[in-house]
Amino acid sequence: MKNRVEEHIEQAVVQMAIDNPALGQVRVSNELRKKGILISPGGVRSIWLRHDMETFQKRLKALSAKVEQEGIILDENQVAALEKAKEEKQAHGEIETYYPGFLV
């Protein structure tokens, strides 16, 4: 397809999002550049959009799904990100409902 990055670069970006869900697109681009994979922050964002990982919450959701499917063991960064999200959710009193305004 037009304007697509190579498959190995796309997989590296997706894997970085799973490994470090708290990193932003600039940081992911920089970390991959250190590994010799050249991609712009905008390119990272485009890949995240294709894989429905553009927000921190969506990357955490993808991480949780991977844990359930593959039974991977979480590293320190992943555990910290999941705990941070859980604390933020409790602090703001968010409640998930099937429909908007369902509790009203």
Summarize the structure in words.
With 104 residues, this protein is mostly helical. The protein has one domain. Helix content is 62%, strand content 0%. The chain has five helices and no strands. α2 packs across α3. It is globular, with a radius of gyration of 16 Å. The N and C termini lie far apart (46 Å). The mean pLDDT is 84.
Provide a short characterization of the protein structure.
The chain has 104 residues and is an all-alpha fold.
The proportion of strand residues reads under 5%
Shape: globular
Tell me the quaternary state: single chain
Average the pLDDT over all residues and give the rounded result: 84
- Count of DSSP H/I helices: 5
> Any idea how many domains?
1
Low-confidence stretches: none
Biggest sheet features: none
State the end-to-end distance.
46 Å
Q: How many strands appear in the DSSP assignment?
A: 0
SSE ordering: HHHHH
Query: Radius of gyration in whole Å, from Cα?
Result: 16 Å
| Helical content (DSSP H or I, runs of 4+) | 55-70%
Specify the structural class: mainly alpha
Question: How are the SSEs placed, and which strands pair?
Answer:
Layout: H1 7-19, H2 25-34, H3 41-50, H4 56-70, H5 76-92
Helix pairs in contact: 2-3
